[in-house]
Amino acid sequence: MNLVTVLLIIGLLMIFAGCWCLMRTYHLLKITIGIEVAMKAVTLFLVLAGRISGSLALSETFVITVMVAEAIVAVVGTGTAVGLFRKYGSMDVRNLKQLKG
Question: Which pTM value belongs to this model?
Answer without folding.
Answer: 0.89
